[in-house]
Amino acid sequence: MQEPMPDAPGDAFAGFGPVGRALVWLCKLGSVLGGLIFVALVNMSIVSIVGRKLAATPVPGDLELMQMGSAVGAAAFFAYCHLTRNDVKVDFFTQNWNPRTVAWLDAFGSLLVALFGVLITWRTWIGAMNLKEYGETSAILGWPVWVAQVLMVPGFALLAAAGFYMCFHFITHVGKGAVK
């Protein structure tokens, strides 16, 4: 699938200012890094499975690595998903409503996403610092668990920023009749 060029017809980011475009770039970077994490996890799983079947030598701690890596990788996708309006929406009832009303509802929904992003960023950071304080490590590898949790914080912070930006975007474009 090819993404439309900026300012081209059908551009998902039409109407975004310089702050919005910078946020899109950061969110794309986060998504690419999250994707690379998942590619590495798939490769590690293949090596572990083949090693287990052929030589009885799986990758030590493969499940721990999968759990920690999946959490970090998944956290990196949420912000870009929200900026491109590809998160889950139930618009069955609102599809025939006035575009201004729908834009206000979208602004409210984005505000809720932003507030959730702030909450989960804060609580993930606090949880990671508690894990660090208590010195919790993974069972097999003995890696500090707090590191994986801290690596989720930037993705959640970007989600909060994306939510606030989209709320602002919807509100400022309500007077124009429709939001792209």
Descriptors for this entry?
single chain; 180 residues; mainly alpha; 5 helices; 0% strand; disordered N terminus
Could you please describe the fold and organization of this structure?
This is TRAP transporter small permease protein. Residues 45-166 form the Tripartite ATP-independent periplasmic transporters DctQ component domain. This protein has one domain (18-85, 95-176). Residues 1-9 have low confidence and may be disordered. Helix content is 68%, strand content 0%. Helix 1 (18-55) packs antiparallel against helix 5, helix 2 (62-75) packs parallel to helix 5 and helix 4 (99-134) runs antiparallel to helix 5. It has 180 residues and is mainly α. It is elongated. It has helices spanning 18-55, 62-75, 78-83, 99-134, 145-173. The chain is built from five helices and no strands.
Number of domains: 1
Please give the alpha-carbon distance between the first and last residues: 20 Å
Q: Strand count, sense and closure of the main sheet?
A: none
Number of strands: 0
- Secondary structure class reads mainly alpha
pLDDT under 50 segments (min length 5)? 1-9
Shape: elongated
Indicate the proportion of strand residues.
Answer: under 5%
- SS summary, helix count: 5
Rg estimate, integer Å = 20 Å
Succession of helices and strands = HHHHH
- Helix fraction, binned, reads 55-70%
Mean pLDDT value: 90
What topology emerges from the helices and strands here?
Layout: H1 18-55, H2 62-75, H3 78-83, H4 99-134, H5 145-173
Helix pairs in contact: 1-2, 1-5, 2-5, 4-5
Family: Belongs to the TRAP transporter small permease family.
Membrane topology: Multi-pass membrane protein
Keywords: Cell inner membrane, Cell membrane, Membrane, Transmembrane, Transmembrane helix, Transport
